[in-house]
UniProtKB/TrEMBL annotation:
Membrane topology note: Multi-pass membrane protein
GO cellular component terms given for this protein: plasma membrane
Gene name as annotated: Tspan36
Coiled-coil annotated spans: none
Domain of life: Eukaryota
Native organism: Chordeiles acutipennis (Lesser nighthawk)
Protein name in the entry: TSN36 protein
The entry's keywords: Membrane, Transmembrane, Transmembrane helix
Compartments (UniProt record): Membrane
One Pfam entry name: Tetraspanin
Keyword match Membrane: yes
Transmembrane domains' residue ranges: 30-54, 61-85
InterPro entries in UniProt: Tetraspanin/Peripherin, Tetraspanin_EC2_sf
Length: 168
C-alpha cells in the first residue's frame, strides 16, 4: 500500500506540472506531498505491526492498534473537511480558470495549457463552450468561434463556430 501511495503522490506531482498555470496557489501540490509522507509513515507502521506480530509482543500490538486508531480518526477528519470545503475549492479553481481563459490569445504558454486541458479532458470552457463568449480572445477575433481545441476529436473539418455546437 505504501508503494502504491508513493506512486500516486509522484504521479500527482508530475501531473501538476502540466496544470500549474491553472493552480497559481503554491500550496496546490501539498496534497501530493502529504500522500508521499503518508506512504512513508504507512511503511513504518506496517513494519512495526509485522515485528510485533512475529515477536507476539502485547506492547507492540497495543502500539500498533493505537496508531491505526489515530490514522482512522485522521482519515475521517480529512473526509469531513473535504466535504465541508468542496464548494470553496470549486469556486477558487473556477475563478482561476476564468482568469487563465481571459489571457488566452492562442500563442502564449497559458494558451497552450488551455488547449492541452481542453483536448485531454474533452471539454470546452470552464463550464461549457459559452464561457468563451466572455473572453477577450473571442471578442478580438470577431469570427464567432471558439479555439479548435474545443472540437470533438472525431469531427473532421471543425471550425469551432458557435453555430455548429454539435461539433464542440
Amino acid at each position: 500500500a505504501a508503494a502504491g501511495l508513493s506512486y500516486v503522490g509522484a504521479y500527482v506531482i508530475n501531473t501538476y506540472k502540466s496544470y500549474d498555470n491553472f493552480l497559481h496557489d503554491k500550496y496546490a501540490p501539498l496534497p501530493a506531498a502529504i500522500i508521499i509522507c503518508v506512504a512513508v509513515v504507512m511503511f513504518v507502521i506496517g513494519l512495526i505491526g509485522c515485528c510485533a506480530t512475529f515477536r507476539e509482543s502485547r506492547i507492540g500490538l497495543g502500539l500498533f492498534l493505537s496508531i491505526i486508531l489515530v490514522i482512522f480518526i485522521a482519515e475521517v477528519s480529512a473526509f469531513v473537511l473535504g466535504f465541508v470545503y468542496r464548494e470553496k475549492v470549486k469556486t477558487d479553481v473556477q475563478s482561476t480558470m476564468h482568469s487563465v481563459f481571459e489571457k488566452y490569445d492562442g500563442k502564449n504558454p497559458e494558451s497552450t495549457v488551455v488547449d492541452y486541458l481542453q483536448e485531454q479532458l474533452h471539454c470546452c470552457g470552464v463550464k461549457n463552450y459559452s464561457d468563451w463568449t466572455a473572453t477577450q480572445w473571442f471578442n478580438s477575433t470577431g469570427n464567432n468561434s471558439v479555439p479548435l481545441s474545443c472540437c470533438r476529436q472525431e469531427t473532421k473539418n471543425c471550425t469551432g463556430r458557435l453555430d455548429q455546437p454539435q461539433e464542440l
